[in-house]
Amino acid sequence: MSAPPTNESAPGTAPAPAPVPSAKPVQVKLVLLGEAAVGKSSLVLRFVNNEFQENKEPTIGAAFLTQKCRLEDKIIKFEIWDTAGQERFASLAPMYYRNAQAAVVAYDITKQASLEKAKSWVKELQRQANPNIIIALVGNKLDLEAERTVPTEEAQAYASEQGLLFTEASAKSGEFVMEVFTEIAKKIPLEHLLASRSRTGAGPATGAGAPGAGGANGRVDLNQSSGSAATAGGCC
Amino acid sequence: MADEPASTTPSAPVRIDSDILTEMMASIEATEDLSDAEYDKYLQQVLGDSESHSTDADAELASEIMPTLTSLQVDDIPQLNPILSPIASSAMRESLENPGFSLAMLRRWCLSLCVVTFDLDLGPALEYIYPPLELSEPELKTICFSSFPDSNSTSHLGDTIFSFRFRSGASIAKLYYGSDTGCTNAIDSNANISVVDSDAFTYAYVYFRQKPDKEIRRGYFQKSVVLLSPHPWHGFFPILLEQILGPRIMDALGSEKGDDGERGDGVLVLARTLIKETCIDITRWPPPPSSVLSKSLYQNSALQISLLGRQFLCLFPPTVRYPQLFESSPVSLSALGTVHQRSASALNAVHHQSSDSTTSLSSSTISPVLACPGNMYTTFSTTIGLMYPLWELLILGESILVSAETPKSCSQVVWALLELVKPVPFGGDFRPFFTLQDSEFRTLGRSTSVPSATILGVTNPFFDKLFQHWPHKVRVGSLNPMAVGAPSSPQTGKGTFGNGGPSAGDASLNRSSTPMGRGMPIIPNSENSSPKSGSPRQSTLKSFMSSFRGSNSNLGKAASNSAQQLVTGRGSPIIVFDAVVESLSTKYKSVLTKDKAFLKDLADLVTAGASMEILNNTIRRHFIELTDKFLQPLNRYYEGLIVGSPLSMTLSALRAKPQNNDDEKFAQGLPFAPKSAPAFPAQSRRSLLDFYRQFFKSANFAAWLQHRSAELNREWRGHYIDVLCDSDVQVWVNQRGRQEIECVDLLLRLKDEVAKYSQYFPEFSDNLSTQQTIFSAADISSGFIPSDEQFKKLKKQQAVILNLLPESLRMMQ
Predict the structure, then answer these.
(1) What are the Cα distances from residue B699, in Å, to B394, B445, B460, B781?
(2) B629 class by beta-carbon count within 10 Å (0-12 exposed, 13-18 middle, 19+ buried)
């Protein structure tokens, strides 16, 4: 069932075997979006349990999972909302990506249409999600190289243009799955998250992000930010 | 009839320009720092709540749903209902040609049976519904989404059963409380079925199957069979689904191949036939037991019913506030002795139609199915002490959030909570399984306020965060967490879950209102250092086990042992009640203390190896007693306001209704009702008068009063009819000093009654009984329907008195 794990983590990070005693984990809310059957749940399963199920059942509703990682001296706790890809769930996606610090938008490298769907998710996130959200575009099913229909260059070009993280990966073989999350972790303004959390003393509902807006009132000016959609991703 | 093309041809799906939507969304600009009010506004807009957007959202939903169904359409088949596939409408025609089928007879019991599938491209989709039912878009959406788990689908492998409840839309409401335009689909003129004790809600009982199937794209079979009914019989319908309907229909669905050669694609002939047969069987059942037909308001009625060749003996409560107890041992039907006479004649009446499989149950011994069982023991097996604060919260009609891992366990616990306070009827709203996609999410899902008197059962961890402001939260676990609906793996070693005994509740009753347990996305779990802590289920289990580790395990062991008995002790598995209340988080300060003597007795029973039925009944009796004691001062006061007694009624002093039954006056007088605190079987910490005062303000009090008055009316009316039927009219008329006017009055009364009910006894030939009849809403609300025998007597009395009247007066009649 499970492919041999190729758990090659990027330097500096690894799933935390034991937390550094003093460090409080930084919670990072991450949402997975993408067309049905591109392998969203499989990517999460690989990341969280390092396993792969050949026949993963279609996700109904949404699944919630967590995974802790260590990045240098910090512990990051990913809170992952794995959503169902079917059209009828799309209307509730805002509930899940609200307040998310990161999003993984997945497509299937063997299905051109799934990239188009991914682009529309990216667009939606850029317009409506937390303006500082880190978006990673992930082309899954790299193990199916022979059936590829989406050229790497095409997706890469789109990602650079939009300021997204980009990689191709395989939940089946495990290739580059860790890297997706590692790269996201590196881009998250961890210091700020920690600081804002201790400042407000509140739970994650109010704690995250918005470093640009910062300041005393902590509110984002609705009028001001609506136009600057395309610059999301490269915050700080 | 059914061939008539319906005027409700669906309008062309409206395509919403996605840019409009996104612009709208962009203008909201979701941000981190929305205040609660802003967030509510945001939710409203996202969910299409505001006037201007609701039509867009509805149209959007319509446009999502239409393509699947319209793509199936064949041109020459008229559309009965926009949501139906043509297959369904042709099936409808077939059965209407069957003289044995009456839609109204079916709908006394249930509305329709549906198959909901998880469409790989769209998501949940209604695949088949029979008989056709006009459903609004919000209803349709709720049914589709609530028929599947809301989150973490991996934990739902196998078959599972749960239930949900939604507000009936206009057309369902019309069916049951109808107007003369009644049945808009023109299928059956006999619309307006009245159902006693029903509310404005529809109950859905779901059998969900998720299993690998290599012949289906993506390798999984994911479908639900859903039975819609106006009745809150959370024990009865699930048993039918579990024992016969669910597996039979699912097996049929999973064995047939569609046109494209894919399995599980569409609802094909085998499954359709089964669903149709089910419906025909249901039309042959006797009328659903109800207080208007029941001789006694305080007794179960037993019905023997047949479904797809299986016989069931079922016990129904006379009203929704009546608590049912388990039969502690199998009984023979004759021993019960209370089988409704109408049902017996009903069975005879249909015997010629289904003589093949109808075997009498009277000689065999079986365990009757309870319509509203109270599985108190399992539910509280690890947290016995929590029953007291929960009883108080429920009596007061407080809003409670019930979060669980699976739809099955949250719906089981929500029902169990309602059972806990009977005979006080819960007067608020309750949703055994509520999802993020529910069309009423926008009204119930506010992030700032808590809806009053509402019990919500949820599984999506998203709610834990959204509803963290709810005052009372119950966390539900499972005795048997890994085997969801898979009775083949009864737990043996899990008895260690059990907690030690009576005082366990204190540990779990967390007054600091901290959300407890796992599966909470937001609560850092500091002691949980495992990198593999991902699955909420795993961590739940761990914390659950650790919180009870080392304590005496008797209670839990008995629970799981008995659950096992239930599984293995019969030919086929029965529903395993394995949901357990793990914790309660509240700031509420209990008034009552636990009854230590009772808890000790209970522990003794457990140690002695008492059966699950006995344990459930013991707990139940204890809380019925508690509730009765609580109600005693109110009952005494209420009865004190009534003038006279129905028992003393005679022909000379007839009164169809109690006098001075003034609810308003009662409500006004009430604050002074309990002058002294009644003797509870538990001690109170604080003044009970405050507790009563709170109760008077609650929805439960209103509901109780309403029930009480309705029962009183029924009782009076029953005596009234009895007196009319059973008095010796001849003797009465000939009594000295009898005024003519009195005789005429009696005659008019008899005439009234005969006229009122004659529609139900059409030809009054002996082989026709009320079982063929649909009662009108008006007569149901008057609270009483005479039996065949009583109706005959009324007619006879009418003739007798008519003969005794002088010629001149007879002419006037």
Answers:
(1) 11, 20, 28, 21
(2) middle
Helix (H, G, I), strand (E, B) or coil at B209: strand
pLDDT in tens, B388-422: 999 999 999 999 999 998 999 999 999 999 999 99
CATH number of the domain at B611, please: 3.40.50.11500
Segment B462-501, tens digit of pLDDT: 898 889 999 999 999 877 544 433 333 333 333 322 333 3
- Yes or no, beta carbons of A27 and B524 under 8 Å apart: yes
Residue A67 sits in a domain whose CATH number is 3.40.50.300
Tell me the CB-side half-sphere exposure of residue A196, using CA atoms within 13 A. 26
Task: Determine, yes or no, domain membership for B248.
Answer: yes
Distance of CA B547 to the CA centre of its chain: 34
Determine the angle formed by the axes of helices B612-640 and B554-568, rounding to 10 degrees.
100
Verify whether the Cβ–Cβ distance B31 to A15 is below 8 Å.
no
Domain around B790: 728-811
Does residue A102 form part of some domain? yes
Neighbours of B360 (CB within 10 A): 11
Residue located via tokens 């659903």: B288
CA atoms within a 13 Å half-sphere pointing along the CA-CB vector of A74: 18
Taking alpha carbons only, the member of B722, B725, B713, B719 closest to residue B783 is B713
Q: Do B64 and A88 touch (CB under 8 A)?
A: yes
Q: Which helix (H) or strand (E) holds B212?
A: strand B201-212
Structure tokens at B502: 């009576």
Do the Cβ atoms of B453 and B409 come closer than 8 Å?
A: no
pLDDT digits (tens, 9 = 90+) for B107-164: 889 999 999 999 888 899 999 999 888 888 899 999 999 999 988 655 667 899 999 9
Residue B89 has pLDDT above 70, yes or no: no
One-character DSSP codes across B409-427: HHHHHHHHHHHHTTTSPP-
Distance separating alpha carbons of residues B465 and B607, to the nearest angstrom: 40
Inside any domain, residue B309: no
CB contact under 8 A, A219 and B536: no
Cβ(B24)–Cβ(B53) below 8 Å: yes
Asked if the structure places residue A77 within a domain, the reply is yes
Neighbours of A217 (CB within 10 A): 9
pLDDT digits (tens, 9 = 90+) for A162-174: 999 999 999 999 9
Contacts with A89 from chain B: Cβ below 8 Å: 123, 437
The C-alpha atoms of residue B233 and residue B236 are separated, in whole angstroms, by 5
Does A97 map to a domain?
yes
How far apart CA B561 and CA B397 sit, in angstroms, is 34
Q: A148: domain range?
A: 26-192
pTM, full prediction = 0.76
- Rounded to whole angstroms, how far apart are CA atoms B95 and B584? 50
Query: Smallest CA–CA separation between A73 and chain B, in Å?
Result: 16
In whole angstroms, how large is the CA radius of gyration of chain B?
28
**Contact list, A40 vs chain B (CB under 8 Å):** none
The whole-angstrom distance between B28's CA and the closest CA on chain A is: 7
How many domains does the structure of chain A reveal? 1
Query: Nearest-CA residue of chain B relative to A42?
Result: B154
Q: Are residues B740 and B677 in the same domain?
A: no
What's the structural domain count of chain B? 3
Taking CB atoms and an 8 Å limit, are A204 and B28 in contact across chains? no
